[in-house]
Design a protein that fits this description.
about 100 residues, mainly alpha, Cytochrome Bc1 Complex, Chain D, domain 2, about 0% strand, disordered N terminus
Length: about 100
């Protein structure tokens, strides 16, 4: 019985280690210019979440230089981030979690 418990515990640890946390991705790549609820160099997540869809946020992260005009901006200061698709999705969902705040 103890052996099965150890195997299950190890499996759960691996699954958890493989999952991404949107807040962690934000803190790693976005925090220098964006804050969750306050204006920084870039707009706060509360503002972005009210205006954008998941797909729009991911597209802007993928290619800010090609998307800024479509969003009605005169310029973009956002740098090109080389995030994986999963990181983009995870941080976009984290941003959208601020929609009602």
């Amino acid at each position: 019985m103890k052996k099965y418990f150890i195997v299950i515990l190890a499996f759960c640890s691996l699954v958890q280690a493989g999952s991404l946390d949107g807040k962690k991705v934000f803190e790693t790549y976005c925090w220098g210019c964006h804050h969750q609820t306050a204006m920084a160099f870039g707009p706060p997540f509360t503002q972005i979440a009210k205006k954008r869809t998941l797909e729009e946020i991911e597209a802007y992260i993928t290619s800010p230089k090609s998307m800024y005009k479509a969003f009605g901006y005169k310029r973009t200061a956002m740098s090109q981030l080389n995030l994986t698709d999963k990181e983009k999705e995870t941080v976009a969902k984290y941003i959208l979690s601020f929609k009602g705040k």
